[in-house]
Amino acid sequence: MSAPSQCITPSCGEVVKSRGLCKFCYMKAWMYVIKGRVTWEKLEQHGLALPKKEPWVGYNELMNARKEREARIRAEIKKHECVVPRCKRKVKSRGLCASCYEKQRKNVANGQTTWEKLEELKLSLPLKDQFSEDVKKNYRNVVV
Questions:
Q1: Please, which contacts does 60-69 make with residues 24 or more away whose CB atoms are closer than 8 Å?
Q2: Cβ distance 127 to 120 under 8 Å?
Q3: Mean pLDDT confidence for 102-119
Q4: pLDDT at 100
Q5: What percentage of the chain carries pLDDT values higher than 90?
Q6: What is the Cα gyration radius of the chain?
Q7: How far is CA 15 from CA 4, 95, 144, in A?
Q8: How far apart are CA 29 and CA 93, in angstroms?
Q9: pLDDT band at residue 133, thresholds of 50, 70 and 90?
Q10: How many CA atoms lie within 13 A of 118 on its CB side?
Q11: In whole angstroms, what is the distance from residue 134 CA to residue 144 CA?
Q12: What are the sequence ranges of the domains in the chain?
């Protein structure tokens, strides 16, 4: 039996959203269900709703992959936030936002601290090498 394309509610005829019901009829039935006036099983028994469809093959794998991808994106975004506690601004250098970096740069310039001490206290990250070894090697070959 194929799913109906029109709402199964008598005299409705709108396009089906879920369980054989249009959006309006589905929301109306759903409200009765969440208020405890009726259950989906009773509606199904009386022909006022169709049984819930099983997810298609591969649905769970797709949803798990999506959750993993979203977690990776959140982790990547987190890596680009300032390492200073309670500062969520975008990273400029050494894991610090522009204002935190400037503050620590002045402290280092004034001799109040060093970048190594800040790294030990996890208030800064090591300075990253901007170019990979491969790029450096090719650059030297071009310059020479």
A1: none
A2: no
A3: 92
A4: 92
A5: 34
A6: 30
A7: 9, 53, 72
A8: 55
A9: low
A10: 23
A11: 16
A12: 1-52, 77-143
Asked if 19 and 49 touch (Cβ cutoff 8 Å), the reply is yes
Q: SS3 of 29, please?
A: helix
What does the block give as tokens for 21? Answer: 């019901």
Query: What's the mean pLDDT when you consider all of the chain?
Result: 83
- How many C-alpha atoms does 72 have within 13 Å on its Cβ side? 6
pLDDT digits (tens, 9 = 90+) for 39-60: 999 999 998 999 988 877 788 8
- DSSP track, 50-114: PPPPPPPTTHHHHHHHHHHHHHHHHHHHHHTB-SSTT--PBP-BTTB-HHHHHHHHHHHHTTS--
Q: Which of 23-27, 61-65, 110-114 has the lowest mean pLDDT?
A: 61-65
pTM check: above 0.90: no
Encoded tokens for 111 = 């001799």
Q: Output the six-digit token pair for 17.
A: 């959203």
Residues in the chain: 144
